Amino acid sequence: MNKTHALTSMNKLRPIIAALLIAAIISGITIVASSAEDKNTLLINFQVDAENTGEHLFKVLGELEDRGYTTTVYVTGSFAENNVRIIQEIQDHGHDIAFHGWATGENLTKMNYSMQQKILINAKNSVENYSGQIEGFRPQYYSQNEDTFTILDSLNISYDSGFISGLKFIPGYENYSIPYKVPNHSFYAVPVSSYRTPDKIIYLCDLSASSKFKINASVWSSILNNKFDESKRKNEPMVVVIHPWITGNETTGYWQAFTAFLDRIENKNIEVVKTSELLDFYIGDYKEPENFLDLLWFAFPANPFYKEVRS
Q1: In a structure prediction context, what are the per-residue pLDDT tens digits for the chain, which is 311 residues long?
Q2: How far apart are CA 263 and CA 267, in angstroms?
């Protein structure tokens, strides 16, 4: 049985397995408690877009590097073609590369299957020509549909970050803030985090905050800090999309908000991770359940305890 077919079959059994395990635990099976460190560590993934960046790209990456952090940089196929040295330098600094379509502003939902396929294949090949194999994708402006998903299957993509908790989601996963398997496909969704105010949902993207919601730097800073506190309470990851020409520009105030946030989270039991590392933390390497702890992991994959005791 291949991995995808096995995982699809097991997904159908997850509710039954969970119910049986809960009953077993209630009946008296003792579970060793997880370590406080693993239980309370907050994972933060900054997804940096390398478009229209100028000098601001390495300003943002440099700030992260100075604090010992690496991240994932999302690049378009056209950017890769015109910025070979930058692609290599990003990787030399320890960051991952993911692809972000062919060109800024494209809308996949307005294209038929053949056009989408041509654009996505060309974009991935273009980026990989200079970066080597990549495993991640985020569509421009989160524009994607079932045709996109089918094409991504053929491209052997591990994750798609074109989802937003509470806003852009697969039905049934409306409020998921952790990675989840896209039903009937071979890859995982990695949702960008969102923050609920009394009258709207604001997703953690500096471009959207400044352009769509007209949020000033002070409010943006408050949103980052409030979402951090909320994520700590809920033991959920925090995924933030950064555009260096906004966050790296000190005249907007977003730079000051960004560095102040980084100052605040230092020594706060957090770990800044690449998107692939975030996925691996929650999903890990899939294997057929062989014992009780494997079944616990399968039934409750979001609980870091089961990953710890299973390793």
Answers
A1: 444 344 444 444 555 545 554 544 444 433 333 333 455 799 999 999 998 777 899 999 999 999 999 999 999 999 999 999 999 999 999 999 999 999 999 999 999 999 999 999 999 999 999 999 999 999 999 999 999 999 999 999 999 999 999 999 999 999 999 999 999 999 999 999 999 999 999 999 999 999 999 999 999 999 999 999 999 999 999 999 999 999 999 999 999 999 999 999 999 999 999 999 999 999 874 444 455 555 454 445 444 444 444 44
A2: 9
Annotate 210-232 with b (16+ C-beta within 10 A) or e (fewer). Answer: beeeebebeebbebbeebbeebb
Do 98 and 136 meet the contact criterion of CB atoms below 8 Å apart?
Answer: yes
Counting Cα atoms < 13 Å in the Cβ hemisphere of 178 gives 15
CATH topology of domain 3-96+190-310: TIM Barrel (3.20.20)
Q: What are the extents of the domains in the chain?
A: 3-96+190-310
